[in-house]
């Protein structure tokens, strides 16, 4: 149980980079990626935010509206001011693509942008592949820095390669991006706090320097990251049989969620709900942005004992075949007179 | 010896260090695609030894790397020693750098009781769900009781806010962040010398610090008068960082009588004691004895911060298990403090790692395992004491100069402050392949009886023949 190096488990980091950037990524082969083990997604974002503050002290971070609540806290506590870009389109329960593109265009050249690589939290609304290409292209033209938060690789579609598509598009376009990875959901290692922060640099020398600075930020925060979860990840990903088993299991998890989406939507439509519900199956990942109001959510809690965040976000993982009918009925009850 | 030095390391922009990305740095056209052009970083890096940041201006909307001009960070003074040791090919090399316990065979030691606890945990098949932000409840309860004693009035009165942290470092950092946020303008007094990472922690947390005299090189002992004076002269309400036992790096602890006097002056000045307890049980071999200083202060009715670590005493180094405790004057304020510690932890790592906390909770919570742990800890502390004695015996019999080496026996814990200066420490490494930190600290945990003679020779040589 000897201390890991400040940058964490080398094996775990290697495997994480292969997962995100591709097994045969030239960037890995050319040693251009500065990467360290981090305390899950939160810790990876925090290291990056602190790095941004230290080396680009007069910049801000553009975050989507809405985003995971803790993103606000992370950059704020790191002393980096926040700005927002349009993302969710309430009327369609989908992506406000033109708003998003406008905001990318109007941001000052060289701005820092936070993007969710897949399974946007909390909305479940992801850009299509075509839309990602346009986003990448526009960001390239503006010289923006893309920082990806990827908390659900494999968990969104069931296929890790597919879930990394946005990142691969950006890499193809030549972006020098940053990436936070988490194994909380896709390996169910929640409480073990396993993740990885990587920054693509111009060359190996730069990557070495950048990594050394990331370690300098980690040392006064926690010295070196926890071992146990990292050992699990590197053992699983480093062993072909175990990795195959994992790919199967992550697909099972993702499929169950996808199945629940379909069932919930079907139930609502069969109940004759006057509202449109196709966004339930259009959205992806753990969460569904139902479009319910805080008052409707309160009714769900008070009258039906169903708990969710007041922004109407449903964690689909909390549904099963046993309760989906009950939930559909409850949602219908509180929304039918909307 | 230097006295008070106020400093805050800041990452402000200094004009001389700013770096502008001019077109002249772009060697040729930018071509991106599957074979991205690389920029040479030679000659662009103007401040590789500086700790201030470079400001990078994006004058052109081109995808030039944002990391141009980011200098290579210096190696960590402590953790970097192990890296250098690994690279050394000599077969007489000895690693007395990092404070990690080694057996007589100089191997890392996983406690038997830890293996037992882990097997139990595996059998039980517990899940890996997120812990709450404040950590594992059973662990928090156990750690506070271990520190203060289960029947401590502060615990009974619910005046102790405990939040699981990322070992000692993470717990100190939470404490530092609390100070920065809720005690603006307050400073921390740290001992001279202290563990290297203390300064980094307070710097990064943006809490200004100054030093109190501690180590007296003339006696290789405690500069007690200087310590008291410096604590007295600090502005009222200063945070005073104290090592609960087994001071790192010197191994020099105040006597019980001296602790009383330190408590007196801290109380007089309304200072807030901040204890770093990284070696409870490891110093004397007794958990209770090693917690005496903390318990003294708490019994005086003072409000106290305490950071704990299980890295050494349970050998859980890499699992990062520790806690920040805030003993306050009322249960109501303890609850408020705890809530704010959580708010600081959430944007750092959300919730702490579960594995190590479960190990601790299981061991402390199971009487048979707890007894086993105490026995193993006594064994570890005992080995260190033996090695201390052996080293002293070796040096004093070999060194004919009449120098008094008894300070080695008076020091306690994993470390010994040899009194060697930087050049002499370098000689230890360069000539004798003995790795230690430049402040003259050796980790006795990394020393075996078999190597005492060799070490004695090296110390005598470095002390007498190098200046």
TrEMBL record, chain B:
Cross-referenced SUPFAM superfamilies: PLP-dependent transferases (SSF53383)
UniProt-listed InterPro entries: Aminotransferase_I/II_large (IPR004839), Asp_trans (IPR000796), NHTrfase_class1_PyrdxlP-BS (IPR004838), PyrdxlP-dep_Trfase (IPR015424), PyrdxlP-dep_Trfase_major (IPR015421), PyrdxlP-dep_Trfase_small (IPR015422)
Cofactor(s) of this protein: pyridoxal 5'-phosphate
UniProt keyword Transferase, yes or no: yes
Catalysed conversion reaction: L-aspartate + 2-oxoglutarate = oxaloacetate + L-glutamate
Entry's EC annotation: 2.6.1.1
Domain Aminotransferase class I/classII large: 93-459
Entry-linked CDD domains: AAT_like
Functional description taken from the UniProt entry: Important for the metabolism of amino acids and Krebs-cycle related organic acids. In plants, it is involved in nitrogen metabolism and in aspects of carbon and energy metabolism.
Family designation: Belongs to the class-I pyridoxal-phosphate-dependent aminotransferase family.
Extra facts: In eukaryotes there are cytoplasmic, mitochondrial and chloroplastic isozymes.
Protein name per its UniProtKB record: Aspartate aminotransferase
Organism of provenance: Cicer arietinum (Chickpea)
Gene name of this polypeptide: LOC101497409
């Amino acid at each position: 149980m000897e201390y890991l190096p400040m940058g964490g488990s080398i094996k775990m980091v290697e495997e994480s980079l292969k997962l995100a950037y591709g097994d045969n990524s030239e960037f890995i082969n050319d040693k251009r990626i500065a990467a360290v083990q981090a305390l899950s997604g939160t810790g990876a974002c925090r290291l990056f935010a602190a790095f941004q503050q230290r080396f680009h002290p007069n910049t801000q971070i553009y975050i989507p509206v809405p985003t995971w609540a803790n993103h606000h806290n992370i950059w704020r506590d790191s002393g980096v001011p926040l700005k927002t870009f349009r993302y969710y389109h309430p009327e369609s329960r989908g992506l406000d693509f033109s708003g998003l593109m406008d905001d990318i265009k109007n941001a000052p050249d060289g701005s820092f942008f936070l993007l969710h690589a897949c399974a946007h939290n909390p909305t479940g609304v992801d850009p299509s592949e075509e839309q990602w290409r346009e986003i990448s292209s526009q960001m390239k033209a503006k010289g923006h820095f893309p920082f990806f938060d990827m908390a659900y690789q494999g968990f969104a579609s069931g296929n890790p390669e597919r879930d990394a598509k946005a990142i691969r598009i950006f890499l193809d376009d030549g972006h020098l991006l940053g990436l936070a990875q988490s194994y909380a959901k896709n390996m169910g290692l929640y409480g073990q706090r396993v993740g990885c922060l990587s920054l693509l640099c111009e060359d190996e020398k730069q990557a070495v320097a950048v990594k050394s600075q990331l370690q300098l930020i980690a040392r006064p925060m926690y010295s070196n990251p926890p071992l146990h979860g990292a050992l699990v990840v590197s053992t699983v990903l480093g062993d072909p049989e175990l990795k195959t088993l994992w790919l199967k299991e992550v697909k099972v998890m993702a499929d169950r969620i996808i199945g629940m989406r379909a069932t919930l939507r079907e139930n609502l439509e069969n109940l004759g709900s006057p509202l449109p519900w196709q966004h339930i199956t259009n959205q992806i990942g753990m969460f569904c942005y139902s479009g319910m109001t805080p008052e409707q959510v309160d009714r769900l809690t008070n009258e039906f004992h169903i708990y969710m965040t007041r922004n109407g976000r449903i964690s689909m993982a909390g549904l099963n075949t046993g309760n989906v009918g009950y939930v559909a009925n409850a949602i219908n009850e509180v929304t039918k007179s909307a | 010896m230097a006295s008070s030095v106020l400093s805050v390391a800041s990452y402000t922009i200094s004009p001389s260090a700013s770096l502008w990305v001019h077109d002249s740095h772009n060697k040729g056209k930018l071509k991106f695609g599957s074979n991205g052009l690389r920029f040479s970083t030679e000659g662009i890096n103007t401040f590789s030894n500086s700790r201030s940041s470079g400001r990078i201006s994006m004058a052109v909307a081109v995808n030039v790397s944002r990391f141009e001009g980011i200098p290579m960070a210096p190696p960590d003074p402590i953790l970097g020693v192990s890296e250098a040791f690994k690279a050394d090919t000599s077969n007489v090399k000895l690693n007395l750098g990092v404070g990690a316990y080694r057996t007589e065979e100089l191997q890392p030691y996983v406690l038997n009781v830890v293996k037992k606890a882990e097997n139990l945990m595996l059998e039980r098949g517990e899940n890996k769900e997120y812990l709450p932000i404040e950590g594992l409840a059973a662990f928090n309860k156990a750690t506070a009781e271990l520190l203060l004693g289960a029947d401590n009035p502060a615990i009974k009165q619910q005046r102790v806010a405990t939040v699981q942290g990322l070992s000692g470092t993470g717990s100190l950092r939470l404490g530092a962040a609390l100070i920065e946020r809720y005690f603006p303008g307050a400073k921390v007094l740290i001992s001279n010398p202290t563990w290297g990472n203390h300064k980094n922690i307070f710097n990064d947390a943006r809490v200004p610090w100054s030093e109190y005299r501690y180590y007296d090189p003339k006696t290789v002992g405690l500069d007690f008068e200087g310590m008291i004076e410096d604590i007295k002269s600090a502005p009222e309400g200063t945070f005073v960082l104290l090592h609960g036992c087994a001071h790192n790096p010197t191994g020099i602890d105040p006597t019980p009588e001296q602790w009383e006097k330190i408590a007196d002056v801290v109380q007089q000045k309304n200072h807030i004691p901040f204890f770093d307890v990284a070696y409870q049980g490891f110093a004397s071999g007794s958990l209770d004895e090693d917690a005496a200083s903390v318990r003294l202060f708490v019994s005086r009715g003072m409000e106290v911060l305490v950071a704990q670590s299980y890295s050494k005493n349970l050998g859980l180094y890499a699992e990062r298990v520790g806690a920040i405790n805030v003993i306050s004057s009322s249960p109501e304020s303890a609850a408020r403090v705890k809530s704010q510690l959580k708010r600081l932890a959430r944007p750092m790592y959300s919730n702490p790692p579960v594995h190590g906390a479960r190990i601790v909770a299981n061991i402390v919570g199971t009487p048979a395992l707890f007894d086993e742990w105490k026995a193993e800890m006594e064994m570890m502390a005992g080995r260190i004491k033996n090695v201390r004695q052996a080293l002293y015996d070796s040096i004093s019999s070999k060194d004919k100069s009449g120098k008094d080496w008894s300070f080695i026996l008076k020091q306690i814990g994993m470390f010994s402050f040899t009194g060697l200066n930087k050049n002499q420490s370098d000689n230890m490494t360069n000539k004798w392949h003995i790795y230690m930190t430049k402040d003259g600290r050796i980790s006795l945990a990394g020393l075996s009886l078999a190597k005492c003679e060799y070490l004695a020779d090296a110390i005598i040589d470095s002390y007498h023949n190098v200046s």
